[in-house]
From TrEMBL:
Domain called ABC transporter: residue spans: 3-233
Domain of life, source organism: Bacteria
Cited PANTHER family: ABC TRANSPORTER ATP-BINDING PROTEIN ALBC-RELATED, ABC-TYPE TRANSPORTER ATP-BINDING PROTEIN ECSA
Signal peptide: none
Name used for this protein in its record: ABC transporter domain-containing protein
């Protein structure tokens, strides 16, 4: 699954946040989207998942342009938001059921996968819990489990490490590796450069709504010496 973002101009209610964003994520690649607070990472992601409509430019998934009229692409994308979004009135079991329905998954196969994922995140005995019963990190794990149940070919992950315990970070990265091996493409925004450096194939550095530079973290550091530590030289 290939993601191509071309000359994307966008933002909120005509307020231009993204000025001209172009980058791609190829089959089996994990690309890190990095940049200072307010650089435009979440806004870029909100356009890719179809929450915002581009003012200019295109977003293509396997060559097909995402438009408001073409919502089929949504089943191709698994999205893990920065802040967990769960339905207060639905149990963990019902969140899994909802995911299965929304993505049109094979029920038995998906539940087998869900059971494995819930075991990994120690949630297997909490199927009847409501979101109010979960801690923030546990809610994040529910979102992660739902996203990986889909086995979608494109994963969009917005700053996943904040609030996750170290074991969960390790487990999440192993799951991403597994999806990559299966050919999925992953775009992950993060501030955790040390962790990301070990796993990302490439980085796209955003600054003030534009792509400042792309490449390995070593290449970025060479061009902009502060990148590896604090991003303070951009
Ligand atoms: P962070 O690292 O803090 O998560 P980010 O790179 O994800 O930052 P964005 O959330 O994309 O940054 O924000 C980019 C710009 O868009 C900022 O100037 C921000 O103020 C603005 N912005 C973000 N959300 C909204 C919104 N809902 N309405 C209007 N402007 C917004």
């Amino acid at each position: 699954m290939t993601l191509e973002v071309s000359h994307l101009v966008g933002g909120y209610s005509q307020i231009p946040v993204l000025k001209d964003i172009s980058f791609d994520v190829k089959d089996g690649e994990l690309v890190g989207l990095i940049g200072l607070n307010g650089a435009g990472k979440s806004t870029t992601i909100n356009h890719i998942i179809g929450l915002l409509t581009p003012q200019k430019g295109t977003i293509k998934i396997n060559g097909l342009t995402i438009t408001e009229d073409n919502q089929e692409f949504k089943q191709q994308i698994a999205y893990i938001p920065e802040m967990p979004i769960l339905y207060q009135e639905l149990t963990l079991r019902e969140h899994i059921e909802l995911t299965i329905m929304a993505y049109g998954l094979d029920h038995e196969k998906a539940w087998k996968r869900a059971t494995e994922l819930l075991k990994i995140f120690r949630l297997e005995n909490k199927l009847d819990w409501f979101p109010a019963n979960f801690s923030k990190g546990m809610k994040q794990k529910v979102m992660i489990a739902c996203a990986f149940v889909t086995e979608a070919p494109l994963m969009i992950i917005d700053e996943p490490f904040l609030g996750l315990d170290p074991l969960a970070v390790h487990d999440l990265l192993s799951l991403i590796e597994e999806r990559k091996k299966a050919g999925a493409s992953v775009l992950m925004s993060t501030h955790a450069l040390d962790t990301a450096e070990k796993y990302c194939d490439r980085f796209v550095l955003l600054h003030d709504g534009q792509v400042k530079i792309e490449g390995s973290l070593a290449e970025l550091r060479q061009a902009l010496p502060g990148v590896g530590e604090t991003l303070d030289d951009i």
